[in-house]
Design goal:
311 residues, alpha/beta, five-stranded mixed sheet, three-stranded antiparallel sheet, globular
Length: 311
């Protein structure tokens, strides 16, 4: 989606995007090419885990800030809390430009679940939902990671919530997002966890919806779904990359970003219209959201060990 907007803004710069498949698959391809001394990528837009576990560890990304040149990009006054959000420990490699409130990655069948009856994350542990919840594999890199990080690190929930959720509720595991959403839509399951493609399924009119951020009394978190940008070293087109990064972070670029995502994503830039954004994904003033992807939360080793120990 980034490529479409940038190409329209700069028709003389040819854009080639690699967007098919999960982020982990794209990262594997990029790293395989780099080991063969093939450098095809100028900038990478992806998830926190892709970047911190692989690109930064491999020293494949240099500091991003030297590329920032436009006054409206350098000046952070119009960004959330008037500051940069870098997700790496050094606060210089990977900039977070999206901060979308999220509610834990929980999707439900609207014919089987009345969200008004749900007041807490712990309501999912009600025995009546046993065997009625399905999950995308939480041990695989992907959409589960930021939600699990929130569950694990947020004091009102913590490790015990994850232990009970996956240990008591007879949750089947799948790696097929489409199949999970189909099963949810036909009522085989009442809830699904961490599916990709949920927005498209809802747009198609399937009887499913997402638990909105803030519905549960424990709160919500702010995180990028994929709104992170890094600059690759050995970039084949450094000048074009500089133009692209500055456009992406500009007022125009962030407006295009939000519009292309049909309101499902919320830019960290505050001086653009949020009218097209879905109300549930707008940050509310005065709310102290948990930031679910700081560098110290990226290591999912203790969470995965916990999951492996489940009955």
């Amino acid at each position: 989606m980034f490529g479409q907007g940038f190409q329209k803004a700069y028709p003389d710069i040819k854009v080639t995007t690699l967007s098919a498949g999960r982020g982990s698959v794209r990262i594997q391809r990029i790293m395989a090419e780099r080991r063969a001394r093939i450098y095809n990528v100028d900038i990478y837009i992806g998830s926190p885990t892709d970047v911190t576990k692989t690109l930064i560890t491999a020293k494949a990304v240099p500091p991003l800030k030297p590329l920032l040149a436009l006054p409206e990009v350098v000046d952070r006054y119009h960004w959330s809390q008037h500051k940069d959000y870098y997700i790496d420990k050094q606060s210089k490699y990977t900039l977070m430009y999206e901060g979308t409130p999220q509610g834990g990655g929980i999707v439900y069948n609207t014919k089987l679940v009345d969200p008004k009856e749900l007041k807490s994350f712990f309501d999912l542990l009600n025995p009546k939902w046993k065997g009625k919840i399905i999950s995308i594999d939480p041990l695989v890199d992907g959409s589960s990671q930021q939600n699990l990080s929130f569950f694990y690190n947020y004091p009102p929930l913590g490790p015990n919530f994850i232990r009970r959720l996956y240990g008591e509720m007879d949750i089947p595991i799948s790696r097929d997002d489409r199949q999970v959403l189909d099963w949810l839509a036909i009522g085989k399951y009442s809830f699904a966890l961490f599916t990709r493609g949920t927005e498209d399924a809802i747009d198609q009119g399937l009887p499913i919806a997402m638990i909105p951020p803030g519905l549960f009394k424990e709160g919500a978190f702010v995180s990028p779904r994929s709104g992170l940008v890094s600059y690759m070293n050995q970039a084949p087109h450094p000048n074009a990359a500089k133009v692209a990064v500055n456009w992406l972070l500009s007022r125009q670029g962030q407006t295009v970003f939000q519009d292309l995502h049909r309101g499902w994503n919320n830019s960290m830039r505050e001086n653009i219209s949020k009218d097209k954004g879905l109300p549930i994904y707008r940050r509310q003033k005065g709310v102290d959201y948990m930031m679910a992807n700081p560098a110290e939360y990226i290591d999912l080793t203790p969470i995965r060990q916990l999951l492996k120990e489940r009955p």
